[in-house]
Amino acid sequence: MASESSFSGGAGEAFLNAELYADLIRAGGLSRAIAKAAEDAGVEVGRVVPSGASLRASCSTAVAATDRGKISVLLGVKERRFSISIDGETHVWAAGGTSDITSVARVIASWRTGVTLRLLASEFPFMEYDAMAQAYEDGDPVQAQWDKVLGSDQHPEMHAILRQAYSRPEIRRLYPYFSHGVLRFLTDCNDVTAVRVFVDHAAEGHYCVGTTIAGDTGEDIYSIQGVIDKMMDLISRLAK
Predict the structure, then answer these.
(1) Do 61 and 51 meet the contact criterion of CB atoms below 8 Å apart?
(2) Average pLDDT of 202-230?
(3) Which of helix, strand or coil describes residue 189?
(4) pTM above 0.85, yes or no
(5) Residues 212 and 230 sit within 8 Å (Cβ to Cβ)
(6) DSSP 8-state symbol, 89
(7) Residue 192: what pLDDT?
């Protein structure tokens, strides 16, 4: 982290707009300014550090670790704005922005106490969250994701497969999503490194079904029922 002397010597102004962020320059960077705001407000934010070791990072970034993911703060360039993102391992809990650094400190402090998403947004209206974040908090993100993909008008060529897949309890417990046009099923929605089963629509009536296990390039399948049967086979093998 950059020293306070490096800021007092004018280095901070190289990366911070003095008209917008004079308080940050005086404090010695964003993370120190958040810590000071927390102290002044009488709230606990834990350890807040820059996202990197460079002077630029010390000036304009801050990260706070919590039991429910990390809270990152970045600065606006053209206006005074503190952009806040609360990130879990697999999803964003909530995000928003404010011009008030004390509010930033209070958001961090509130999240650390275990506040719910509804209470967070009620106390800090600039913080927003989506249905998936709420589903994770409620403990049922898989069903919420199925509702999302089944109700979407995107990827119509895969709708029949999705409906058939949802009818099978073994597949329905997986987390479905699209990435680069390929339908993927995450075997553990709380682990981004977990194995995925994929269904690639290669052409009309032609699919490639496989897993993300190294060496598995997939198998060509030429019917929807064949896709479902292959998925059931793969899921059975992964369960062993």
Answers:
(1) yes
(2) 95
(3) coil
(4) no
(5) no
(6) S
(7) 85
Structure tokens at 199: 């269904």
Q: Coil, strand or helix: which one is 35? A: helix
Burial class from Cβ neighbours inside 10 Å (0-12, 13-18, 19+) for residue 136 reads buried
Q: Output the CA torsion sign for 124, 129, 135, 137.
A: negative
Torsion over CA: 79, 82, 86, 87 (sign): positive
Can you give the length of the chain in residues? 240
pLDDT, tens digit (0-9, with 9 covering 90-100), for 209-221: 999 999 899 999 9
Work out the mean pLDDT of the chain and round it to a whole number. Answer: 92
From CA 9, how far away is CA 6, in angstroms rounded?
Answer: 5
Q: Is the pLDDT of residue 182 over 50?
A: yes
SS3 232: helix
